Amino acid sequence: MNGSLCEGNLISNNQIFQLPTDGSGTNRAEFGITVDHEILTGFLDYSVIQSRNFTQLITGWGWVVRNSTSNVQKSQDLSFSPTGFTYEKAPRTAVGHMPDGQMCLLEIDGEEDIDAGPDLFEVAELAVSLGVESMINIDGGGSSVSVLNGKYIDKPTCNDTPTVCERAVASITCVRNKF
């Protein structure tokens, strides 16, 4: 959060919740789907966001897979302090797409207080092994939770302890069947 706003861009179901008003970019990794069902990931500048007619857009932290290879070391929005976010063992959530255009959501459980879970290099390694073409890290820690039909399908640790609970968050990534 930045004041009362989320950090980054957010468009959901064609509704713009947040875009910079000054024409600047976020300098952070983004995942978006256009009205033509084109999936774009990476560092999208304001002119691209304005011209592509996104129906969905979310900003993350770390473009972890690019062209089916790990991109963590090259992601301009990550720092590489040995004790920082990139190397932290924690729950992680990422979104990307496969070469055939199918969307891929990846949520990996962990627990920060005992250094359990993957660092971003391990997230990228797993995603590449699954055949992901491009993926950004969108969250982690106590905000990582997976729900199917109203029930947890993982073990969320919202307080970064063994206690299972769901943390309130500003935005979610939701996939639904369209009938």
Describe the structure.
This protein is mainly beta and 179 residues long. The protein has one domain. The chain is built from two helices and twelve strands; from the N terminus they run ββββαβββββαβββ. A five-stranded antiparallel β-sheet has the order 2-1-5-3-4, with no helix packed on it. β11 and β12 form a beta hairpin. The longest helix is centred in the last third of the chain and has 10 residues. The model has no long low-confidence stretch (mean pLDDT 86).
Quick overview:
With 179 residues, the protein is mainly beta. Helix content is 9%, strand content 28%. The model has no long low-confidence stretch (mean pLDDT 86).
Q: Any key phrases for this structure?
A:
mainly beta; 5-stranded antiparallel sheet; 12 strands
Largest β sheet strand count, sense and barrel closure: 5 strands, antiparallel
Strand order of the largest sheet: 2-1-5-3-4
Counting structural domains, the number is 1
What is the tally of helical segments? 2
Secondary structural class: mainly beta
Radius of gyration (Å)? 16 Å
User: Poorly predicted ranges (pLDDT <50, ≥5 residues)?
Assistant: none
What proportion of the residues form beta strands (DSSP E)? Answer: 25-35%
The tally of beta strands, per DSSP, is 12
**Amino-to-carboxy terminus distance:** 35 Å
Element string (H = helix, E = strand): EEEEHEEEEEHEEE
Mean pLDDT: 86
Overall 3D shape? globular
The residue fraction in helices comes out at: under 10%
